[in-house]
Write a structure and sequence with these properties.
The complex is a heterodimer. Chain A is mostly beta strands. Chain A is 0% helix and 59% strand. In chain B, the strands form 2 sheets. In chain B, strands 2, 4, 5, 6, 9, 10 and 11 form a 7-stranded mixed β-sheet that branches. A 4-stranded antiparallel β-sheet of chain B has the order 1-3-8-7, with no helix packed on it. Classes of the chains: A mainly beta, B mainly beta. Chains A and B meet through β4, β5, β9 and β10 of A and β5, β9 and β10 of B.
Amino acid sequence: KQEVTQIPAALSVPEGENLVLNCSFTDSAIYNLQWFRQDPGKGLTSLLLIQSSQREQTSGRLNASLDKSSGRSTLYIAASQPGDSATYLCAVRRTGNQFYFGTGTSLTVIP
Amino acid sequence: EAGVAQSPRYKIIEKRQSVAFWCNPISGHATLYWYQQILGQGPKLLIQFQNNGVVDDSQLPKDRFSAERLKGVDSTLKIQPAKLEDSAVYLCASSQDRGLGELFFGEGSRLTVL
C-alpha cells in the first residue's frame, strides 16, 4: 500500500524567505504527483502536477521536483508572501486512478 | 471551464438525523471521488466511481453511508443516521482517465453533527 508523508507538519517563516516543503512516498510505481493548496474551510486547489516521466514543473514562484527512485518530491516557494499562508498537500496517483494523500504542511508566512 | 460544483457548503444537524450532499463533476470527467477530511488530516477516500460504476468503496461505512452516481454524471452522498464523528468536510473531486489525469476538487461541504 502506498504511504505518503509530509514533513514538517507545520512551518512558520518570515516574509520574503525561500522555503521547501517535502513529500515522500513508499511505492515508486506512480503515474503522477500533484501538489495542492488548501485554505481554511475551502477545497483543494491544484498547484502543480508532475508526470512520472518528468523531473520538475514550474509555475510562477513555485517549483516542484520529483525523484521517483528515492520516493521524494519537493515544493519550492520563492520569496514567500503572507498570502502563501495555507496548508499544502501532496498526492500521488497510481494506475487505476487511485490517489494517496499526505497529511499536509501548514505554512504561515509572517509579515 | 466550470469546476466541480458541490452543495450545500455548510450543514448542521443533530446526531441520528440524515443528510445528503450533491456533486456535479467537471464535464467529461469519467471518474468521481468522495473524500472525507477531518480537521488536521489529509483527505480519506470514501468512494470512487468510474462513470456510474463503483471502483472502490472499501472505506465507506456502509451501515450509514451510501452514494450513487446516476447516469455517470452527478453524484449524491448520504449519511443516515449521522454520528458525532461524522463531523468533517466532504470533498468531491473528479479526474479524466486519460491525459494528465489531474485531480480537481470542489469547495467541499462542511458537516457539523451536534
